[in-house]
Known about the structure:
The chain has helices spanning 25-41, 45-53, 55-67, 72-76, 110-128, and strands spanning 5-7, 16-18, 85-88, 105-108. It is mainly α. It has two domains: 1-41, no CATH class; 58-129, no CATH class. The strands form two sheets. The chain has a two-stranded antiparallel ribbon. The chain has a two-stranded antiparallel ribbon with strand order 3-4. It starts with a strand and ends with a helix. The mean pLDDT is 87. It holds the Pfam family HNH.
Amino acid sequence: MAKPMKQCNHAGCRQLVPYDVRYCDKHKHKSNAETYHKRMYGEHEGRYQQFYKSSQWRKLSRRFLENNPICVKCYQDGVIRKADVVDHVIELRDDWSRRLDESNLRSLCYRHHNQKTRLAREQREQQTK
Length: 129
């Protein structure tokens, strides 16, 4: 059975694409470029993206993961799981000055990092309302 089709999400484009695809081949690149531009040059986002690409952060996070290879949250739950991400306990948005402070870092797996980030984002959105 064939997948259901829908129109491309680009405004005015009538090209049919599979239901689980957002853009046709013609507009896929344009949407990726717009997302990249917003992320890199947005009002405040660019500063954070530039930091995470810096050699200082890459060296520090690599060394920190080598020294702390186990997810802190999983270990507290009695499970030993490899850490994938170096997380800022106090986020950069809340305190920029602690971005390279090792006492503000911890090793987390993707699952726990995504949970923590989602909760922090939700709290920030509630404070702005």
